[in-house]
Amino acid sequence: MTTTTATSTTPDELLGYISPDQLRTAVKHGDIRTVLLVVPDMLGRLKGKRAAGLALFERLDEGNGIRVGEACSYILATNADMEPPDGFGLTSWDDGFRDMVINADWDSLRVLPYMPGTALIHCDAVDYDGAPIEVASRQMLRRQLERLDALGFEARVGWESEFVLYSGDRPVVDRNIDYDLDHPPRLTDFLSHLEDALPEAGVPVEAFKTEGAPGQVEATFPKCDVITACDRYTVFKHIVKHLSRRHGLSATFMAAPATGLTSGLHLNLSLWQEGRPIFALSSPRSLPTEIMGHSIAGLVAAVPHLMPLFAGNANAYKRYAIPRNFTPRFMDWGPDNRGCAIRVAGHGPSSRLEIRLAGADANPYLVAAASLAAIAQGLTEKLTPPPPCLGDAYAADSFEPLPGDLSEALKAFRFGNVARDLLSTPVVTHYGRAAQVEIDEQRREVTDVERRRFHLA
Q1: Are residues 228 and 271 in the same domain?
Q2: 334 is a domain residue
Q3: Using an 8 Å Cβ cutoff, are 88 and 430 in contact?
Q4: CATH code of the domain containing 86
Q5: Same domain, yes or no, for 203 and 352?
Q6: Same domain, 56 and 79
Q7: pLDDT (tens digit, 0 to 9) for every residue of the chain, 457 residues total?
Q8: Contact status, residue 210 vs residue 173, Cβ threshold 8 Å
Q9: Are 313 and 398 in the same domain?
Q10: Listed residue (128, 11, 9) closest to 20, CA to CA
Q11: Distance in Å from the first CA to the final CA of the chain
């Protein structure tokens, strides 16, 4: 999808999505000097290069129009600190950490008005023969979208994300201001700046609200096609982090940034067929449609085997350990129930499944790919969902509990057949290794909690 909001190349009119021709003209006129060539890493963070605009077009004029550069393939095989662990098949010391090609997805081209003279384009990682790299998260998502398309459906999604703002080492607000509209000036100034910057960068947001945890903010995004939604979320995180620093603040998307505090990334998903929504219900408490029921059943059956794609680090599992904190504890579903892993929400054309498993730090492409893989299985096998949770979701022990930690999640992911059947053996091997790297790091790291509790023992 490309939405062009500019018809000329004056700086004031270059907003949101632009075309390659508009970019070329803007580069020639000096209105855009730098193009960020970005590839999502395993954590969903934008990694890449700052390309000089003129040099980029000189390169494209000599090539095929999409091959915009090369990058070390270790971008797709590192830990959170960008260290290159051993054990990945994609790249290693054995092959000298070879390069990969990055191809521009021109539909994602946008300007970043909060960074004057700068545009950004999402890129896909491919081998030199042009074959997509299977473990790249954007490619994983495309594969599941193709599978869904073969079944005759398209998906539309919208994210809800939470993050926490800090001033120094303290939250910018020190109390519960859930749904509050009387914010302190510093928070109001930041939110106003953010609300201006996001649509100008092609990232529309439906609403912001402050949450129950001190300093916590939630953003709700409108539904659109899945790739665009994931691209927008990665740019959103980039903007939040960039602007928070400008305001002397810092933002964290950690799943559990403090004891008892959690930040989620909820995936609101609906299926469409021939331009009409398949999930349409008169109310969220109506019986699911047949297609919705198969989708729910697929999620309930498969997601427990795919959890490292929803929660890929040790911290993420601390979300599930807190009772009655609007974070699921079981792989359950229920009508308009915010304690469930899958909430049936909305009515009419807005009817949707709200998949509430991921923390805010999750890679959105992986979350969407895993969810669609599970749904496709439910549709293909015409699975029937278990009875819904109609009461306290934290007492719904008839459903499978979510993994207690990453080690438990990794066993189901790596040693069962479900993840391999739905995602492929190379994907399971790659992301299984990433999870093991996180587990090994956690096991040897001495934490502040240990020092506080045991230093006098």
Answers
A1: yes
A2: yes
A3: yes
A4: 3.10.20.70
A5: yes
A6: yes
A7: 444 343 334 445 678 999 999 999 999 999 999 999 999 999 999 999 999 999 888 877 766 678 899 999 999 999 999 988 888 989 888 888 899 999 999 999 999 999 999 999 999 999 999 999 999 999 999 999 999 999 999 999 999 999 999 999 999 998 888 888 888 899 999 999 999 999 999 999 999 999 988 999 999 999 999 999 999 999 999 999 999 999 999 999 999 999 889 999 999 999 999 999 999 888 878 888 999 999 999 999 999 999 999 999 999 999 999 888 889 999 999 999 999 999 999 988 889 999 999 999 999 999 999 999 999 999 999 999 999 999 999 998 889 999 999 999 999 999 989 999 999 999 999 999 999 999 999 888 888 888 888 877 6
A8: yes
A9: yes
A10: 9
A11: 60
Residues 124 and 150 in one domain: no
- Nearest Cα neighbor of 179 from 205, 208, 204, 158 is 208
Q: Give the Å distances, CA to CA, from 100 to 68, 82, 91, 429.
A: 11, 17, 10, 19
Distant-in-sequence, close-in-space partners of 447: CB < 8 Å, separation ≥ 6 = none
Q: Which helix (H) or strand (E) holds 451?
A: helix 448-454
The domain in which residue 37 lies consists of 11-132
Co-location of 265 and 358 in the same domain: yes
What is the value of pTM for the model shown?
Answer: 0.94
Say if residue 324 is in the same domain as residue 408: yes
314 neighbors 249 (Cβ within 8 angstroms): no
Residue 283 φ/ψ, nearest 5 degrees: -160, 160
Residues 182 and 51 in one domain: no
